[in-house]
């Protein structure tokens, strides 16, 4: 069955700030979910070539790192989060690079800012208040993050409350048991209900790939989430034993490519957890560029979930500007 000719497919117009229609989902298609296979050794060979054979230096590296900053979901998901901490994080989100570095890069007239600020639902209001007028959306984790083991009605209510408080993006977690039990229709129905609860907010489906055991499960969960209406698919909560890896990411972006080919919908991708260095950011950027193209280097289709990555990126940019490496404590998170 060709997904593009599915009679149940809905049509969505492009939204302000986006150059593509929002994914409105399609009817569940078991053949598209279960049909493809994944060759583990081929995936590993392909991803090993990214850091080994690609190199970006000097001003080109600085430009890629500035672009990476614009795609960061600057995140705090700690048990001791407070409104004051969130306000400090939002200040950093609006000015992620020191003013002298922005000036040296010639970006004073269009200073970079991060893609979003990601917080717990109870911190959405303080984040929205701090980011008013900045154009930076607030993303809220929801649905019983990070395990997702809450009754569905409570998870849906958590989404609605976060959206009512001003969240423009919702990072949901899936029920891993649906994947491990191969119950793809249950997973589809769950994500579709979450997509409906999001209303105008964009839905980013966290697959928690470290819990899914196989790359085939990762592909199948990715396709199911996109069919159910996910605007982004995301690797991890950052709380699993194994978070974002290049092999898992390759499988997910290949699923995005397959879904695009069949439906015309462009789905975003977000690696999260374990990305700590500027080199990590560039490895994932290269993956996106080579597998999906230039559009997937922009924040409406690519995000990096990180809390500590920004410090190293800023440090590398300072090295480009001054020729010297600074201590990390010169680049405070907030």
UniProtKB/TrEMBL annotation:
Residues 1-25 are annotated as: Disordered. Coiled coil: none annotated. SUPFAM superfamilies: Aldolase (SSF51569). It comes from the Bacteria. Signal peptide: none annotated. Keywords: Lyase, Schiff base. The keyword Disulfide bond does not apply. The keyword Lyase applies. This is Deoxyribose-phosphate aldolase. It comes from Dongia sedimenti. The gene is deoC.
């Amino acid at each position: 069955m060709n997904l593009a000719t599915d009679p149940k497919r809905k049509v969505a117009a492009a939204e302000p700030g986006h150059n593509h229609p929002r994914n409105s989902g399609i009817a569940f298609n078991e053949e598209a979910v279960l049909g493809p296979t994944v060759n583990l050794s081929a995936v590993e060979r392909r991803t090993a070539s990214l850091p080994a054979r690609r190199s970006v230096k000097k001003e080109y590296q600085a430009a890629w790192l500035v672009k990476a900053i614009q795609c960061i979901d600057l995140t705090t998901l700690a048990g001791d989060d407070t409104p004051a901490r969130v306000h400090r994080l939002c200040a950093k989100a609006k000015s992620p690079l020191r003013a002298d570095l922005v000036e040296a890069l010639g970006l004073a007239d269009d200073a970079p800012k991060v893609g979003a600020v990601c917080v717990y639902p109870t911190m959405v209001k303080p984040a929205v208040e701090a980011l008013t007028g900045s154009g930076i959306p607030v993303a809220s984790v929801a649905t019983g993050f990070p395990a997702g083991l809450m009754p569905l009605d409570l998870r849906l209510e958590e989404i609605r409350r976060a959206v009512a408080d001003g969240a423009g993006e919702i990072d949901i977690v899936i029920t891993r048991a649906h994947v491990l039990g191969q119950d793809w229709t249950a997973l589809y129905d769950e994500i579709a209900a979450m997509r409906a609860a999001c209303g105008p907010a964009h839905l980013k489906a966290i697959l928690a790939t470290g819990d899914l055991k196989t790359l085939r499960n990762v592909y199948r969960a990715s396709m199911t989430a996109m069919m159910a209406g996910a605007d982004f698919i995301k690797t991890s909560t950052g709380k699993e034993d194994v978070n974002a890896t290049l092999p898992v990411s390759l499988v997910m972006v290949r699923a995005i490519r397959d879904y695009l080919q069949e439906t015309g919908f462009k789905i975003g991708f977000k690696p999260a957890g374990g990305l700590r260095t500027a080199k990590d950011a560039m490895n994932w950027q290269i993956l996106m560029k080579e597998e999906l193209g230039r559009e997937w280097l922009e924040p409406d289709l690519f995000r990096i979930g990180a809390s500590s990555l920004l410090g190293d990126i800023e440090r590398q940019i300072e090295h480009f500007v001054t020729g010297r490496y600074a201590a990390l404590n010169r680049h405070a998170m907030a």
